[in-house]
Amino acid sequence: MTGDGDPANTPPRRRFLAGAATALAATTAGCGYVPGGGDLTWREPLRVGSLAFDSDRWHLATDDRLVVVENQSGRTYDWEDEEWGEVENAAVSVLEPDGTVRSAGETERQAVGSPAVGGGAVFVPVERGRVTAVDLSRDESAGGSPAEGGTTGGGATDGPDDDAVRWRVDFASVSGGGESETSGPALGGVRASGALAVAVGSRGIAAVDAETGDRAFAVSDLWTDGSGREPADLTLRVAVDGETVWALVPGIAAATGDGNADAAIVGYDRGGNRRAERAVDAGHEWIAVVDGTVVAGAPGASMSGYDPDLDRRFTLDVRAPNARSTAVQAGRGRLYYSRGRTVASVDVARGEVAFEQSDLPQGNLAVDERGAYVAGIGRERDAGTEARMAAVGVGGAVRWEAPFPDGVEPRELYAFGGRLVALDGDTAYGFRAVPGDRWSPLG
Hints:
- Residues 134-163 are annotated as: Disordered.
- This protein has helices spanning 13-27, 171-175, 253-256; strands at residues 40-45, 52-61, 66-78, 83-95, 101-106, 116-118, 121-126, 130-135, 165-170, 187-192, 196-201, 205-209, 215-219, 238-241, 244-250, 263-268, 274-280, 286-290, 293-298, 302-306, 312-316, 326-328, 334-339, 342-347, 352-357, 362-368, 371-377, 387-393, 398-403, 412-416, 419-424, 427-432.
- By secondary structure, the protein is mostly beta strands.
- It has a domain at 333-438: 6 Propeller (Neuraminidase), CATH 2.120.10.
- The strands form eight sheets. A four-stranded antiparallel sheet has the order 1-32-31-30. The protein has a four-stranded antiparallel sheet with strand order 2-3-4-5, with no helix packed on it.
- Mean pLDDT is 80; it is low at 1-11, 13-19, 25-30, 140-152, 154-161, 178-183 and 439-443.
């Protein structure tokens, strides 16, 4: 329902930048120029529609793209019915490594929590307790309005078929909660793999098939700890690994039979059966899965890893981060996190801290198979307030470091497809992530 600009009259800025870069490379070829880490390759606005956008926006990086989900509102014209109408929904777009931004589709309602990506789709929790799956492989030139269509799954809503929307499912229908269509249950977000999409609600979780939306299982009253209070961010307590859903559950000491514990890690299979369960200390607040190892963190205290049967593999007395760490699963078995100007990496297979690298720019963290990247305010010797970026390899050595272009203040950072992408407002800046020599007139 949204329209892109006129590409015939306004050439994309990245084409100009790419052409300028090519000309510069040709001009300086005799001066020893080699494109290197931190070199700017393109700059692109992220918004692809013409409607007004709200402040709620989510970014999700995969190995080869960045998925953007943003709430929008306003008036749009329906050419078939020849009338104006109000739109209150969320737009889904995809940013490719070369800077191309394309529209993937729209939801029928506005997003209310953290989306998730898996199996070629993005799963968006929307208003009134519904999850909408938007297929990311859809060609934006395909017909149909994603805000009006949708295929059906177990408990899915009605509506004509549409190429962009894979399915829509009401959380109440798969959780057995019985909430009304008007109010709906409160959804904090979605966690997903290529096999399952799991809606995380204020009372429990509900899993559906990622491809069809058919019900898999639901667990209600999962977060009750006996005091009537709920953990702050429930999505941090859920991880999905293939067809296994892992939950870090508070207040189940009686169920585990361990009087000294008031929390547990529980693994559910696709049918909702408990395949593994282990009591843990109540200080643990987040869970992640890295190369088959279940990792739980107690912020500021420790980090522990368990095999799929929840036998302990390691416990590290480190200052675990407050939120789930960023995990790299491309055969590296690494988990990265940052504190202040220090980046740390945990080798999950060995059960040890692989490295801690200090004296780095303080700010955002991104990771890929090559290691970690940080971007933010530089050190005092770097003029104090200059925004800089640095790349740290899997061995802990700094691969390269560079300043940002003048006026760019990185608010978020992502690494995918050989690019390091920094977001500043509505604009994305793509930099080379590979190491190399920066330009020098001396060759």
